[in-house]
Specification:
This protein is α+β, with helices and mostly antiparallel strands and 334 residues long. It is built from nine helices and 17 strands. 53% of the residues are buried. Bound molecules: aspartic acid. Aspartic acid (ASP) binds next to strand 12.
């Protein structure tokens, strides 16, 4: 489909659907006087899945799990595994573009509706890092494992080692090596890191995020994707958010946590995503021309939001039985 037609078809700019009846409720947080403001609609939208980029099959898979009564946690894990196994996607799982030395290293995290979190960082040779992150969350007293330790842990849990560098990604890397120019180019149009949020039939929210990170990154570099509050954050009382794009910028503003906290204060998911992008682009002297950041968010009522710095950030959303890929609204319209 030509870009223009595609845009016309998906002319909904961000799904920041503000509830018709937007009463503010508040409830006490334990040991805190802080109030949680939750916008209500008459009927919350459930089940619901939202994910970064054009991730039709991953979202369809997550939705199919939810339809069978699975938890939001199972749904996001299974959805993300689809992209990790997709060798054509060069930014997630097998087939991901390598670092400067030619090694594919993966980052992933997962967060459940009870506020539990697990992550793995800089993992080689294991494709389904999202499932390894879940094992870290459920089977260890820790929240993060890195590099060799994470790989050994995965193997101890029955994950198979395999070569993640496909011929196509190897060729792209060899071509890059000729000039070895390091520019953190963010893929602004196509599939990239997958961040996924789901609300199950009981209204519980979970999220997952998995990536190979920036292409040709310095060995050891980790972005936002596996970092709690950066690439992903979920608070079951409020909602969830996930990020894609230049991880360094997301981390400096703790983007996903910020969005959830803004929703807690009563902002719609759309407003919260827009404010979070504003935190990046409105820094004095910030030159945002050459990097992209995109956010998605959902609240407890199933209202959603998406916003990016530049055009061409898309996201998939499954709700009311339909799975659509939509273009996000964006900041840089100059
Ligand atoms: N956020 C990812 C990272 O910085 C990359 C991306 O989403 O393209 O590692």
């Amino acid at each position: 489909m030509k870009r223009r037609n595609f845009i016309k078809k998906a002319s909904v700019t961000g799904l920041g659907i503000v509830a018709a009846s937007s009463t503010l409720l508040s409830c006490d947080e334990t040991k805190s006087a802080e109030k949680t403001a939750v916008a209500t609609t008459l009927k919350p939208v459930r089940p619901l899945v939202i994910a970064t980029w054009k991730t039709d099959l991953a979202v369809e898979t997550a939705a199919a799990y939810l339809a069978k009564g699975a938890s939001a946690l199972d749904a996001v894990e299974q959805g993300c595994r689809i992209e990790e196994a997709n060798e054509k996607g060069q930014s997630v799982g097998k087939g991901g573009l390598p670092d400067r030395d030619g090694n594919v290293t993966l980052d992933a995290c997962i967060m459940d509706s009870k506020g539990n979190y697990g992550a793995v960082l800089g993992v080689k040779n294991i494709k389904h890092v999202i499932s390894v992150a879940r094992k870290v969350m459920e089977d260890t007293p820790h929240v993060m494992l890195v590099a060799e330790g994470a790989e050994q842990f995965a193997v101890s849990k029955g994950f198979k080692r395999e070569n993640l560098l496909t011929e196509a990604s190897k060729k792209a890397w060899e071509k890059w090596k000729v000039k070895s120019e390091y520019k953190p180019i963010i893929n602004i149009e196509n599939h990239d890191t997958i961040g996924m949020l789901a609300v199950d039939k009981n209204g519980n929210i979970s999220g997952a995020c998995t990536t190979s990170g920036l292409a040709y990154k310095l060995p050891g570099r980790v972005g936002d994707s596996p970092i709690i509050g950066g690439g992903l954050f979920v608070d079951n009382e409020v909602g969830g958010a996930s990020a894609t794009g230049l991880g360094e910028e997301v981390l400096k503003t703790v983007g996903s946590f910020l969005i959830v906290e803004l929703m807690r204060q009563g902002k719609s998911p759309q407003e919260a995503c827009e404010i979070a992008i504003g935190r990046i682009v409105n820094k004095p002297g910030k030159d945002f021309k050459n990097f992209q950041v995109g956010y998605i968010a959902v609240n407890k009522q199933g209202e959603t939001g998406a916003y990016s710095i530049h055009q061409w950030f898309s996201y998939n959303i499954f709700k009311n039985g339909e799975n659509k890929n939509l273009q996000s609204d964006y900041f840089n319209k100059a």
